[in-house]
Design a protein that fits this description.
With 106 residues, the chain is α+β, with helices and mostly antiparallel strands. The protein is 38% helix and 14% strand. It has a two-stranded antiparallel ribbon with strand order 1-2. The relative contact order is 0.16. Keywords: Plasmid.
Length: 106
């Protein structure tokens, strides 16, 4: 299930923690990717994945595989993009391990 944000991240104050509820999904969607809340693992930890956007707004797919979206978001985070760093902070530990295995730390 793809989530929608009730409050864009740009309106989140510096002291407010970024969460799925206030993440800027519209910006991520314009860039061709999203965060998907897939519920909870058996240990009750959140299951959140970074995925390519399957149904792009303008009909043109930017990424054809999730790994391409991962590479893009990691590259942006490495440049210091707070938005992309925040997105990566929201993914679950299993997703993070998979991304770090392929692309290293950010």
């Amino acid at each position: 299930m793809t989530l929608t944000a009730s409050t864009p991240a740009s309106s989140v104050s510096d002291s407010e923690e970024i969460t799925i509820a206030n993440f800027d999904f519209s910006r991520a969607h314009r860039e061709g990717w999203t965060l998907s809340d897939l519920g909870r693992f058996k240990d009750d930890s959140p299951h959140v994945e970074l995925q390519k956007l399957d149904k792009p707004i303008n009909g043109v797919r930017i990424f054809h595989e999730d790994k391409e979206a991962w590479a893009f978001v990691v590259a942006q985070a490495r440049t210091g993009s707070l938005f992309h760093i925040q997105a990566l902070s929201l993914i679950d530990r299993r997703e993070r391990k998979g991304i770090e295995t392929l692309f290293g730390c950010w």
